[in-house]
Amino acid sequence: MSLTYQIANEILDAYLQLESVWIQLHVGDPGADGISNVAQVDDGMGGTEDIARKSISFGDAPVGETNDVDEQVIYSTSAVEWANTEIDAAQTITHFSLWPHASDEPPAADPLFIAELATPKIVGSDGANIVSGDAFVALQVYVKES
Length: 146
Fold this sequence. Notes:
By secondary structure, this protein is mainly beta. It has one domain (5-140). 8% of the residues lie in helices and 34% in strands. It is built from one helix and ten strands, in the order αββββββββββ. Strands 4-1-7-8 form a four-stranded antiparallel β-sheet, with no helix packed on it. The protein has a two-stranded antiparallel sheet with strand order 2-3. Strands 5-10 form a two-stranded antiparallel sheet. 25% of the residues are buried.
């Protein structure tokens, strides 16, 4: 079943126009709870730990505008950066998740959205960057045939 434009817009705007939305990078399927395969950073004690979530913002979902696969899309409007001290190099990022909180500490919550990257990205020695407009969420919509 597909959503209508109106409902897709309402969902995207309601969940991604929160005061704060947080993005998490993953090196594999995050699972339904969104906490698996989180990208790692050296913990300074010979081990690794999950990278921190970063704040990200989104614009308005454009009414009635879809991409080439009949999805209603909302795009990020802020750049996000993990410095080389915040994420280990040479990891292949395959997914991202969006959250209403900066961490799993109380009040814990389920992820808002989980998405797979169309093209996996390898973390460079300078860290990882998301340019404004590069992160997006798309929901399938019903398109009436002309």
